[in-house]
């Protein structure tokens, strides 16, 4: 713990900030994902005490002063698997699922890498699904993290336009959002999958306990 720990913080400020909390993403090559989640939770706790006044600078100073203390606490130091497991079970009550539809991807390789990074940072699992021209993103995780993902998706320059310039995603739609039910499968990771036929895609949804979702929303895209 004598060495400096580089920490990358990304703040997403909603329209009504600072009357509401900012979205915060935490990354570090030196910390486990569980430790990054703990740091994020502590930052949000601190942010609550600073509500209604600009707080980003204060939060940066606070984490610089308190990072070592946070990482030295027993629950933060414990094994990565244990942390991940305990966090996911306590968050299970707040587990939500959402289905998004993308119109197209021009810079596919870069776009996919960006989505994988966001899902990892926000502890979201699910599928990025390609079938012909249909592109679907099925995400599962904490509802606040799903909201943060949508902010990133709509405000970041993730693709390129017809002239090759970087552009924001304007052609995304939320098809469905609900709290995870008992019949829904828990996804363990975020995976990118390509399907050659509609029945393959249908099987993916049925295996996940989302047969109704497929028939109501996905079939309409094919017709």
Automatic annotation (TrEMBL):
It comes from Macaca nemestrina (Pig-tailed macaque). Keywords: Cytoplasm, Nucleus. The keyword Nucleus applies. It is found in: Cytoplasm; Nucleus. InterPro entries: RWD_dom, RWDD3, UBQ-conjugating_enzyme/RWD. Transmembrane segments: none annotated. Residues 1-70 form the RWD domain. The keyword Cytoplasm applies. GO terms for cellular component: cytoplasm; nucleus. This is RWD domain-containing protein 3. GO terms for biological process: positive regulation of hypoxia-inducible factor-1alpha signaling pathway; positive regulation of protein sumoylation. It comes from the Eukaryota.
């Amino acid at each position: 713990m004598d060495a400096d720990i580089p920490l990358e913080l990304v703040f997403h400020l909603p329209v009504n900030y600072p009357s509401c909390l900012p979205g915060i993403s935490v990354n570090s090559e030196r910390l486990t994902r569980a430790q990054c989640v703990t740091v994020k939770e502590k930052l949000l706790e601190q942010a609550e005490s600073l509500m209604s006044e600009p707080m980003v600078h204060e939060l940066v100073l606070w984490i610089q002063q308190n990072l070592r203390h946070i990482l030295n606490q027993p629950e933060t130091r414990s094994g990565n698997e244990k942390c991940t497991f305990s966090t996911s079970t306590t968050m299970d009550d707040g587990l939500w699922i959402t289905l998004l539809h993308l119109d197209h991807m021009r810079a596919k390789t870069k776009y996919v890498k960006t989505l994988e990074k966001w899902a990892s940072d926000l502890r979201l699992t699910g599928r990025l699904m390609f079938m012909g021209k249909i592109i679907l993103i099925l995400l599962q995780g904490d509802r606040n993290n799903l909201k943060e993902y949508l902010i990133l998706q709509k405000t970041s320059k993730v693709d390129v336009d017809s002239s090759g310039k970087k552009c924001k995603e304007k052609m995304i739609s939320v098809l469905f959002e609900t709290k995870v039910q008992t019949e829904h499968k828990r996804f363990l990771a975020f995976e990118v999958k390509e399907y050659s036929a509609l029945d393959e895609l249908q099987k993916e949804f049925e295996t996940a306990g989302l047969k109704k979702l497929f028939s109501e929303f996905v079939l309409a895209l094919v017709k």
